[in-house]
Amino acid sequence: MGALLVFSSLTVASHVGPYAVEFMDRPFVGLGERDIVNSHCIVDARVARLYRDELVGLLGNAKSTLEIEATETAKNLLSFTHYIEHLVESKVRRGDRLVAVGGGIIQDITCFLAATLLRGLDWYFYPTTLLAQADSCIGSKSSINVGKYKNLLGTYTPPRRVFISPTVLKTLDVHDRRSGIGEMLKVHIIDGPASFQKIAADYDRLFSDDDCLATYIRRSLEIKKGIVEEDEFDRGLRNIMNYGHSFGHAIEAATDFRVPHGIAVTMGMDLANFLSFRTGGIPSMVYSSMHAILKKNYHGFEATPIPIEEFFDALGKDKKNVGSRLRLILPDELAKVRAVELEATPEFRDLCIIFLRSMRAAT
Ligand SMILES: NC(=O)c1ccc[n+]([C@@H]2O[C@H](COP(=O)([O-])OP(=O)(O)OC[C@H]3O[C@@H](n4cnc5c(N)ncnc54)[C@H](O)[C@@H]3O)[C@@H](O)[C@H]2O)c1
């Protein structure tokens, strides 16, 4: 990447006070010496290998470092004994901080530890994936897998500070970039048709123009900030951020996580739109224009087999369901997304099956 656009910081209000998201032109800087010496760094092992030199200042002076391979198993409850033993053996104290360096998986692990270990520690975040920079780094949530159930345990524990340097995105695999773009498309669709059309028109530039990407990272966070500041605890307005997620989580679970999170969410948004379109919701033209971009974003994963019964089983166990009813976020006739509750009737199942089969057939 060349000289990159750097933005002024963004302040996000939370139930424990405001925190700043700072945009940096170099990676892994921003924390003062006093913070670093009292820090336990929890680092994505791949990032540690790729950025050994850039991480010297942080990891070389921290109280301890724990490297973790970023897999869904790593954020399973069963893996936590090892992390806790490491921190206790590293003499973690109540005044110490945790520092997450990585994507959403490292964030979820660190945030959950910060919420629970010694009844609460402060944590800082250096997000290194597009998904984490453009979406998950704000909003306070930690989400941990239990057994085969995704994101079942969780807390609302905002970081104290977030440092974003898009320079580290140059080493991301293309499917991880598209995974992040999936969440960026989501917030732009939620923001309304004009926002979606803008990012859809710039879709190809998100892969080739660093300033364009940085601008959309910032814009995505601004949109999300407006929502999480109004409803941090997901009791009303914030539910719409789950657009594409019930289906996306079911796809992730049914495919044993072979489809990356944001790609599965992209498929989930396309399925939500399809259901809306086929039941008198969004008009055909709007459906088609969104379908074109969403399909482009999940391209390459359409052929992943999605076992139907596993898909419905996971959908039925979604934590947002109410009694026997599924709680889904679907676009209405004006393409405005809203929560609906419905039974998984045979008609509903048939439409899901038609969509999943047609997605596979299109490869
Ligand atoms: N807590 C939340 O608010 C929240 C929100 C959205 C998603 N999530 C969770 O986040 C997880 C997905 O996170 P993610 O998409 O950020 O990816 P990730 O953490 O799963 O990482 C994806 C891959 O990218 C690699 N990687 C990370 N940074 C890199 C870099 N700079 N260069 C090269 N490789 C790099 C990792 O090693 C890994 O192989 C899911 O478990 C999802 O449920 C949490």
Short summary of the structure?
44% of the residues lie in helices and 17% in strands.
Report on the architecture of this protein.
With 363 residues, this protein is of the alpha/beta class. The chain has two domains: 10-170, Rossmann fold (3-Layer(aba) Sandwich), CATH 3.40.50.1970; 174-361, Dehydroquinate synthase-like - alpha domain (Dehydroquinate synthase-like, alpha domain, Up-down Bundle). It is built from 14 helices and eleven strands. The protein has a seven-stranded mixed β-sheet. A two-stranded antiparallel ribbon has the order 7-8. A two-stranded antiparallel sheet has the order 10-11. The radius of gyration is 20 Å and the shape is globular. The mean pLDDT is 95. The chain binds nicotinamide-adenine-dinucleotide (NAD). Nicotinamide-adenine-dinucleotide binds next to helix 2, helix 5, helix 6, strand 7 and helix 7. The site of nicotinamide-adenine-dinucleotide (NAD) has 32 residues, from helix 2, helix 5, helix 6, strand 7 and helix 7.
Architecture blueprint of SSEs:
Layout: E1 10-12, E2 19-23, H1 33-37, E3 39-44, H2 45-50, H3 56-59, E4 64-68, H4 80-89, E5 97-102, H5 104-116, E6 122-127, H6 130-136, E7 141-146, E8 149-156, E9 161-164, H7 174-191, H8 193-201, H9 210-230, H10 245-254, H11 261-278, H12 284-298, H13 308-316, E10 326-331, E11 337-342, H14 346-361
Parallel strand pairs: 2-9, 3-4, 3-5, 5-6, 6-9
Antiparallel strand pairs: 1-2, 7-8, 10-11
Helix pairs in contact: 6-7, 6-9, 7-8, 7-9, 7-11, 10-11, 10-13, 11-12, 11-14
Bound molecules: nicotinamide-adenine-dinucleotide.
